[in-house]
Design a protein that fits this description.
The chain is about 25% helix and about 25% strand. It has about 230 residues and is an alpha+beta fold. The protein folds into 2 domains: about 5-145, Medium-chain alcohol dehydrogenases, catalytic domain (Quinone Oxidoreductase, Chain A, domain 1), CATH 3.90.180; about 165-230, NAD(P)-binding Rossmann-like Domain (Rossmann fold), CATH 3.40.50.720. The strands form 4 sheets. Strands 9-3-5-6-10 form a 5-stranded antiparallel sheet. Strands 2-1-4 form a 3-stranded antiparallel sheet, with no helix packed on it. The chain has a 3-stranded parallel sheet with strand order 11-12-13. Strand 11, helix 4 (about 180-190) and strand 12 form a beta-alpha-beta unit. Helix 3 (about 140-160) crosses helix 4 (about 180-190). The N and C termini lie far apart (about 60 Å).
Length: about 230
């Protein structure tokens, strides 16, 4: 199969397209996905460039976020079947740890696809079934691929750590980034009142489209903290 890989850390030129990697097989509790879309994150650039202590098996398949169609399922997988369209949770956690603690965030052995383990920029990937989410018909592969890492990050911050409840208020500083865009939607879905500080009118407009109740344009209100309490 083909995949986007690098054999050494470095600038963009180290990325190659491998043509003859073996197609992985789905084991017990796993699903093989035919990837239809992948999304680039800043994390992917950092991994490509490398940092002290990062040790990867080469060649390393890039990219954390993707979406695709189920190609095959392993033993014990019952909620997914070949042909299902799926999005991917890029956080890989040991199943035994989840069963023991009941919370992914309490597990120490956590990996992100494309970082410490192979990513999804390949024709086929094999992942735990629990990391896959069935896609509704109105969500495209590209939309699902763009959502993974930023929505996981936002959900953990707002819901798991923050414990956001309906009727509470949340302030999101910044309206253009992926995590901020995800946070607006999650906070709205949770029933919170959503305040967003944007750097210009266009970003404030987009925040309102995503569900912000109140937006503050920093071009007009440089002291946005004061404007917030008007």
């Amino acid at each position: 199969m083909r995949a986007s890989v690098f054999y050494e850390h470095g600038p963009r030129r180290v990325i190659q397209v491998a043509q003859d990697l073996p197609v992985p097989e789905a084991g017990a509790g796993q699903v093989r996905i035919n990837i239809k879309a992948a999304a680039l994150n800043r994390l992917d650039l950092w991994v490509r460039e490398g940092w002290p202590g990062l040790k990867l098996a080469m060649p390393h398949i890039t990219t954390a976020d993707g979406a695709g169609v189920v190609d095959a399922v392993g033993a014990g997988v019952t909620r997914l079947a070949p042909g299902d369209r799926v999005g991917i949770n890029p956080t890989i956690v040991d199943a035994d740890c989840i069963l023991e603690s009941g919370r992914e965030e309490d597990c120490k052995d956590i990996h992100i696809l494309g970082e410490s383990v192979p990513g999804v920029a390949a024709e086929y990937v094999v992942l735990p079934a629990r990391n896959l989410i069935k896609l509704p018909d109105h969500i495209s592969y590209a939309q699902a691929a763009a959502a993974g890492l930023v929505f996981v990050t936002s959900w953990y911050s707002l819901m798991e750590r923050g414990g956001l409840q309906a009727g509470e208020s949340v302030l999101i500083v910044g309206a253009g980034g992926g995590v901020n865009s995800a946070s607006i939607q999650i906070a709205r879905l949770a029933g919170a009142k959503v305040y967003v500080v944007g750097s210009n009118a266009e970003k404030c407009r987009r925040a309102e489209e995503l569900g912000a109740d109140v937006t503050i344009n920093r071009e007009k209100d440089e002291d946005w903290a004061k404007a917030l309490y008007k």
